[in-house]
Amino acid sequence: MSGFEKAFGKILNGVFVITTKKGDRVNGMTAAWVSRASFKPPLLTVSIGKTRYSHELIKDSGVFAVNVLSDKQIAEGKHFGFKSGRKTDKFEGIEYETHKTGSPILPDTAGYFDCRVVNTCDAGDHTIFIGEVVDAEVYEDNHPLLHRHEDFF
User: Fold this and answer.
1) Would you say 32 and 45 are in contact if contact means Cβ atoms under 8 Å apart?
2) Cα 99–chain centre separation
3) Does 152 have pLDDT greater than 60?
4) pLDDT for the residue 84
5) Rg of the chain (C-alpha set)
6) What is the pLDDT of residue 3?
7) Rounded to 5 degrees, what are φ and ψ at 141?
8) Which segments within the chain are labelled E, that is strand?
9) What's the Cα-to-Cα distance from 19 to each of 2, 11, 50, 98, 141, rounded to whole Å?
């Protein structure tokens, strides 16, 4: 592991499943690079690798949801993180709801943000999608999952 990787590993992140819907296709991917961007309007940023299937769907649909995984959802983080949605229906057998954007909202999370893309920013091998939060909920009984490398690799 390089010095850069070790240093980046010291930045604490939550674990999120970013979901989206385009037409009748839904997909989700595990991510750690999510951040608040603005109070008014309420904006979040998500950084998505340009080769990811979710990148293509978010870019085309203009919507995404950020599902904040709870500390009991490491298995869900792994499920959505290790397969490509191009080849696998990651939602086969998975319960979910939809709210304002139609992006999947997972059960038993610590909360969610339902967003419409309002802008993008090129970020090397990723795109930063800036989403206006159009719906959100927090579930007080569930605590957010913090990313620890050893939980996933």
Assistant:
1) no
2) 16
3) no
4) 84
5) 15
6) 81
7) -75, -15
8) 16-22, 25-31, 34-38, 43-49, 63-68, 97-98, 104-105, 111-123, 126-138
9) 31, 23, 15, 10, 23
